[in-house]
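Example 9 (inverse folding). The structure is encoded as follows.
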């Protein structure tokens, strides 16, 4: 799902909630009207309020006084309508309009601002389309445990975790920098990448999280389809790597590296730098390995724009396995 599609679907969800609220309101009115004729009559009376106000507004008389009179009449009738409901064994608010979100009446907006209900739906869709959803549900800052790091390693890792939290909490596509998380397997890079992604998504930004293998796999698939037919959704999917507010590439260096993947990487990172769209990369490769694997033009132009964070410690996964078998 692209960014605009995520937003469109969230709006559709809210719109269908509104339609459901209205339908359920109308069903309840029809139900009581059929059972209690007095209710049907007073409900019809109430529904004339809107047209009466319109007539008063354009009538040329003393508009304010007339509207005030209509309002008093409305309140009296509405009170009587609630009484009738109670007298017939219904809850007094049984035939009131009930929205899923009373704050915005299921419109998704409060004034010109997004209501929290619409924002939540958008975040949920962003989360689902980020590539994160089921995979890393538990990899948050709260579940990241520093107990596996000792002495100096722990101090370094505390600083890195603190820095990444501040990065996520203050994330802004226009001003946040690019990070490259460097270190051996099992030091928590993927966990912290997920934690950053989740927090940034929760703040309402569109994040795409992809392994290097998955990313280049999509470019590769696209390359072989280009001349046969045009699949707009596939093109959108590639564009989201370049367009998203934050791109996270996990495990750079585990993909099969060739001229094509190198030029894709260069093109993608360069596009993002030009557009001020931050990228976070994690890699097991050391500086020299990075240099030998990717051509110098990438190294100097692109990686020069990344702040390196060097992870230290000993493999957490191995420690966990050892602990469990002790
Ligand atoms: Zn709302």
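The amino acid assigned to each position is listed next.
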């Amino acid at each position: 799902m692209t960014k605009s599609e995520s937003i469109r679907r969230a709006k559709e969800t809210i719109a269908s909630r509104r339609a459901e609220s209205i339908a359920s309101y109308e069903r309840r009115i029809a139900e009581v009207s059929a059972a209690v004729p007095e209710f049907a009559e007073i409900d019809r009376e109430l529904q004339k309020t809107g047209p009466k106000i319109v007539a008063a507004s354009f009538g040329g008389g003393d508009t304010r006084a007339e509207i005030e009179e209509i309002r008093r009449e409305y309140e009296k009738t509405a009170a009587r309508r609630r009484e009738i409901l109670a007298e017939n064994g219904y809850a007094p608010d049984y035939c009131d309009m009930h929205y899923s979100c009373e704050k915005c009446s299921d419109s998704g907006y409060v004034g010109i601002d997004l209501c929290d209900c619409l924002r939540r739906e958008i975040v949920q869709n962003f989360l689902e389309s980020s590539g994160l959803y089921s995979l890393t549900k538990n990899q948050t800052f709260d579940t990241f445990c520093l107990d596996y790091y000792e002495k100096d390693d722990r101090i370094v890792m505390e600083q890195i975790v603190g820095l990444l939290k501040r990065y996520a909490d203050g994330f802004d596509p226009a001003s946040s920098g690019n990070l490259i998380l460097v270190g051996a397997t099992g030091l928590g890079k993927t966990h912290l990448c997920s934690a950053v992604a989740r927090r940034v998504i929760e703040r309402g930004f569109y994040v795409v999280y992809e392994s290097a293998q998955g990313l280049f796999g999509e470019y590769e698939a696209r390359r072989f389809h280009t001349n046969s037919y045009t699949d707009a959704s596939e093109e959108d999917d590639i564009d989201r790597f370049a367009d998203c507010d934050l791109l996270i590439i996990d495990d750079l260096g585990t993909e099969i590296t060739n001229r094509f993947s190198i030029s894709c990487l260069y093109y993608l990172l360069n596009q993002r730098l030009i557009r001020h769209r931050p990228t976070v990369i994690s890699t097991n490769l050391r500086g020299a390995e990075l240099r030998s694997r990717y051509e110098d033009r990438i190294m100097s132009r692109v990686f020069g724009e990344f702040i390196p964070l060097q992870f230290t410690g000993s493999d957490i996964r191995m420690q966990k396995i050892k602990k469990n078998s002790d």
